[in-house]
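User: Structure with iron/sulfur cluster, tokens only please.
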Amino acid sequence: MPRQHSICRFCHSACPILVDVEGGRAVRVKGNPENPVYQGYSCARGRALPQQHSHPERLLHSQKRADDGSFVAIASTRAMDEVAARVQELVDEYGPRSVAIYIGTASNQYVAAAAAGVGWLIANGSRMVFAAATIDQPGKHIANALHGRWLGGSYLYDEADTWMLLGTNPIVSMVATVSCANPARSMSDARKRGINLIVIDPRRSEAARYADIYVQPRPGEDPTLLAGMLNVIIEEGRYDRAFVENETRGFEALRSVVSQFDSAYAAARAGVAESDLIEAARTFAAGHRAAACAGTGPNMAPNGTLTEYLLLCLNTLCGNWRRKGEALPNPGVLMPEAQAFAQAQPPRKGWGFGEKVRIRGLENSAAGLPTGALAEEILMEGDGRIRALVCIGGNPLVAWPDQNLTLEALRKLDLLVTIDMKMSATAREADYVIAPKLGFETPGTTHAVEAPEQMWPSVGYPRAYGQYTPALVDPPEGSDLIEEWQFFHGLAKRQGLPLTLYPIRAEAGPLREAKKPLELDMDAPPTTDELIELLYEGSRIPLAELKKHPGGGVFDEPATTVGAKQVGWEGRLELGDATMLADLAALREIAPVGDDAAFPLRLISRRMANVYNSAGRDLPHFERKRTYNPAFVHPDELEQLGLASGASVRIESEHGSIPAVVEAADDIRPGVVSMSHAFGDAPAHDARFREIGSTTNRLIDTRTNFERYSGIPRMSAIPVRIVAAD
Ligand code: SF4
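Assistant:
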């Protein structure tokens, strides 16, 4: 069989790949050098897809927990019979709210996986949808709501003259704070083009190699640093006066609060040179096509929403939004055509609407229900307790904050179902583990990458790009595998419920016509290919046209430009949100993050190359190097601790303790521990930490130091100490 085009679905970047299929199995993968956007890019994870599909630990049949705690294979139809019946019993006895779903980061890659899960839950009458969004970067959603959004969209990295990356390393994370399609190439091209790049990160990351200005702050002081930069820009009159006057409100309130963060104070508190802070502020303000954006580190640290809000203020103050008559680089492919206008959609409520949880006064927010409170919600007795949880694309036992509490909660559930390709840490606690098809066995599209287009600066494709792939191979012979959406369809059908797929909304950026929810036929369900046809009806580029470009196509024509402000439009962006400014003012009154003699180090989150969180840890390309997540610290720190690189240690926080391996890394700021999250396993597996890694989430307390808007606890900039292992 000839080499075939497809889309990698290992991570969220949807790289175009060329796949050699022999004897009905994918045997080799490489990037597609002719692809106009990715230009041949692929990573080791994508090239290991054949090994992922044929991994000896891959589940080829769904599993059911037996009475003695072991697992036995169960037919997927039987599993759906039993799960549907049990869910119905719980709904009948305890009400719809007793059933919840958790949507993890690996759900986006598969057609309608999350949409079908949500549709099934809603059909049951429950609104208890929890997702990784509230323990990852919830501040982005909430800050966007509080600030308002610019309906002309933002500038993109590939066209920018100035850019600022705050605690984000897109070369490794592939999170699109620069182009998600081949970020290293994009950064190298931008450097040749003469971009002014500012990188702020406690770790001199791979992205920092391209920086003109690199600032290495103390973790957790991002709002201080940003307030200091805003103050410099305002005091020196370097902001876009016309834009601020015509399109915003609240400028004086912002000016008043940031004036308390003069450059000397802000720099001292953030642990950077005052001259660096001033230079970064002046350089950023001098840009014409610019943006500042942050990643998981600042968002997982305290005050993540405030950090995101101040970044939006920085972008708005400098007028970094696309104006009337400018080209809109990506008006959409599988989404309906975007309508861009040079006008502001005013702020909306950021939290405190919709469904509530019973924990610590937390409520739904623009990022969703607080996953940081989900374990407590399951454990708390009384009306409204969650008793059944279905997980899609996630591994809560290593991903949710406070691992011990999570383990207790998962064990308290009446029913835990997870869709997983392996017996992960969570799967081993489940009642049913549903074995899914993998990428080469299912059709797919690039829609999920396109979907959040221009939600935040440089998210999504820099051009109107899209790709469709058919399934390339059949599932392994003798297997019984099911796609996620089909599992939820099967449950709904058995419960006599309808199944409606709710479309993914573009929360920010240009306007799009709202798509109607899609109601599926319960007696004659579509195939996944037919479902794709239905999902993308009304797309800017017809699916049939996209299919003519099997290696991916660009559909720039006809060009779309940003329209003039609509007559009578009065929306303005909010620079002076009272809650955010009160949070900022309060920072003046409290000590810097982690100023604690007992726990003098600050543990920050990071990503590691060649894994997706820890997925892929057991694939050959990773195993050749190391299969755990080291605790990287500066060599001077190790010397002070009297430890050698590679030593076994314990990392302790006020809340917990984990075994780990320390490694020297001179790119880390002294006083900082840099460690990848979502590694390891349940505490019972601690002895294997040199093989499977360490779960940093055990160090996190969900009940103290949490943000009141999203409930995210302090998941980065965690005060810790390192002690030698016994
Ligand atoms: S970056 Fe993600 S999508 Fe691209 S090849 Fe690697 S794993 Fe696959």
